[in-house]
Hints:
Uridine Diphospho-n-acetylenolpyruvylglucosamine Reductase, domain 3, 3 domains, 5-stranded antiparallel beta sheet, 4-stranded antiparallel beta sheet
Amino acid sequence: MSPFELLEPASLDEALAALDPSDPQVRPIAGGTALVLMMKSRVFRPQRLVSLRRLNGDLRRVRVDDDGTLRIGALASLSELERSPLVAKAAPVVAQALRTLSNVRIRNVATLGGHLAHGDPHMDLPPILLTLGTRVRASSPTGERWIDLADLIVGYYETSLRGDELITEIAIPPLAAGTRAHYAKHTALSADDWPAVGVAVAFRRENGGLRDARVAVSAATERPIRLSAAEAVLTEGGGPETFAHAADAAADEVQTLGDLRGSAAYKREMVRVHVRRALHAADASTEGR
């Protein structure tokens, strides 16, 4: 790796002040599980890294508000979320997905904020958080703003964060009564490998039909996206044939990208398969009943 300056600020204000929005070679680093690999392969050669490892307090805290909103500090590790009873109760689909998100050594180090800020389309959690209506709080020297997750990752390894902003908190609103959710992950290798296709679904059953249906896909696409055509089909009924039609609509709608884990055509078919499976799995779960 090329030489670089490493700063270890003791407060959020110091960390924000150390960033330079005019210099793309200045980056924050949390767990570093992705960034360090990029540095070792010389894809990224930083001039300065701003380490967040000394920051504590609310940035590492997991809590639930009185209204049921799950609030997660951006520096909470994925292992902490996997073991958190608050996450398991408020967003069980997240806790379930974390069990096969990479390996435990990565989860012990990687942070939720870094997971999202990296903008990698092959991450497991973004499509899940997308179906749950998640927002992130971004802080800068000039203030704070909330960003819907749908507006955070805008392209391949590209986010809407400014160069002087850090994700400081992730907020997941309370699930409506009766909501069922599931994440279906297809890998080319082991169960904890990067997903070749990741599909998340969420919906409620009401009077024999489906309400608030959300379908999101990632890994097969350049960024996590919701599939509106599949969601529209789900409002038309609630039986197995509806799930099959929604899966077909998802495959017709999605624009897939081929890579080492499969061709674009293969991934399109896997979207069809795993949307259908995810819908059936969510419907069969005891969640929301």
